[in-house]
Design goal:
This protein has 328 residues and is an alpha/beta fold. Helix content is 37%, strand content 20%.
Length: 328
């Protein structure tokens, strides 16, 4: 198992308990009208990931639908940092991978988190990418080989772990696991031949685009039909997903794989009025159609209700809007 440091990175994220304890004395995030006036803080992700792209489209959609809602994107390390920021009330809303959200709302041990669901973001199909000139064609071919899972504890790494466990494999023991500290490191390592495969997920995930755009091309490795069935049987919150042809350069055929819903979550006690207005603005943007580069196509009221880990985790303001709009 290898961890690749980066000299350009901020210090590593503290363990969750220490991180939250350190923030306990800090000033809480603004609430109610004050939060709207000063601007809601929206934790997105890091350079090289889908969260930044989606976050930009989300902010544009809310601004267009209701200019009175101030929404300010806050770059972060993604789910691994967004969760403690939300729980501490340091940000108002944030993007979180589905696998991490499941652990928040349905933990094996301890009490569920008090964060709430504002909306689905998109389905996150996960898969491996290798260089097209490599000899790897199946997941079995990759066992024992250097595989990049991205940052340790990240949503991407957690998703990869769930998928491998669904196949009876261990991401650390059955592969030569590599954990990077930035999303941009993984694609470079594949192109330079320093690793066999990179795990990634998302809608036109930038890491996949970079490798597939190289003159040597890319090959995507996904579970086969029998493996997909095994994974979703073990983890019912995961979905069978078909990635359309031409989603990535050189991808001539559709790809079947698994993944889960990514969510826009709200900090505990986010004012009901703010949740209501965000839901109304997002629903208005939904009715405007695909005018945000397709990034918000799956951020619908229908998908949000269908994908809830539990009905009681829907933000109260969102629920009130959905009822008044006749959506539930």
């Amino acid at each position: 198992m290898r961890v690749y440091p980066s000299s350009t990175l901020r210090p590593r994220l503290l363990r969750r308990r220490s991180f939250l304890a350190g923030l306990a004395g800090a000033a809480g995030a603004a609430t109610g009208a004050d939060a709207q006036q000063s601007g809601l803080k929206f934790a997105t992700g890091a350079e090289g990931g889908s969260f930044v792209v989606y976050g930009g489209a989300f902010v544009d959609a809310i601004k267009l639908a209701n200019p009175k809602i101030g929404l300010r994107p806050v770059p972060s390390r993604g789910s691994i940092e967004n969760v403690p920021l939300l729980e501490a009330g340091t940000v108002d809303i944030g993007l979180v991978f589905g696998e991490m959200a499941q652990e928040l709302f349905n933990p094996k041990d301890g009490t569920p988190s008090q964060v709430k669901v504002l909306s689905t973001a998109y389905l996150n199909p996960g898969m491996f990418v290798v260089r097209a000139d490599s000899r790897y064609h199946t997941i079995e071919d990759l066992t024992g080989r250097p595989v990049i899972w991205n940052a340790r504890g990240s949503g991407l790494a957690l998703q990869g772990r769930f998928v491998m466990e669904g196949l009876g494999l261990d991401a650390d023991k059955d592969f030569d696991a590599i954990y990077t500290e930035t999303l941009v490191e993984g694609p470079a390592m594949i192109l330079e031949g320093r690793a066999a495969a990179l795990w990634g997920a998302g809608n036109r995930w930038p890491g996949f685009v970079k490798i597939a755009s190289d003159t040597r091309g890319a090959r995507f490795i996904t579970p086969d039909d029998e493996q997909i069935t095994r994974i979703v049987d073990k983890y019912p919150f995961m979905r069978r997903i078909t990635i359309p042809a031409a989603r990535y350069p050189g991808q001539s055929d559709p790809l079947s794989t698994v993944g889960s819903w990514t969510y826009v979550l709200a900090r505990p006690n986010l004012d009901e009025k703010i949740g209501y207005e965000l839901a109304a603005a997002l629903h208005k943007a939904e009715r405007l159609g695909t005018m945000f580069g397709g990034q918000l196509d799956e951020s619908t009221a229908k998908n949000t209700l269908k994908a809830l880990p539990r009905r009681d985790v829907l933000h109260s303001g969102v629920e009130r809007y959905f009822r008044e709009a006749g959506l539930i």
